[in-house]
Specification:
about 120 residues, mainly beta, six-stranded antiparallel beta barrel, PilZ domain-containing protein, PilZ_domain, cyclic-di-GMP binding
Length: about 120
Amino acid sequence: MRSQRRIERHQLPYYLKVFNRITDKPMGSIGNVSLDGLMLISQLPLLVGARFDMRLKIPGQHGMHFIDFSATCQWCREDVTPGIYDSGFALVAPPADYVEMIDALRYYFSFHSLAASA
């Protein structure tokens, strides 16, 4: 029997592109992320159980910043949109840059109380 995940996930309204680190070809877009994994939205189904070398390209003040990581595909299913596939990945030893990105996204998409005026 398959257990349900209990990991907090953050939905991304604007998708970040994921590339194959070896070929630099686009693999798809991030649907959601956690510290341990991500959901990839792609136009092709991906092989469950396979390990993929991935790259995120993050625009920054000093040009493009790359976050390289490896992840194993845990599941893949067709999305409600025909011809689109959702795949769940578990990260293999997430690098510090990935953890920092998750923290930044969590902060960006969270509500923060404003200091009360006196």
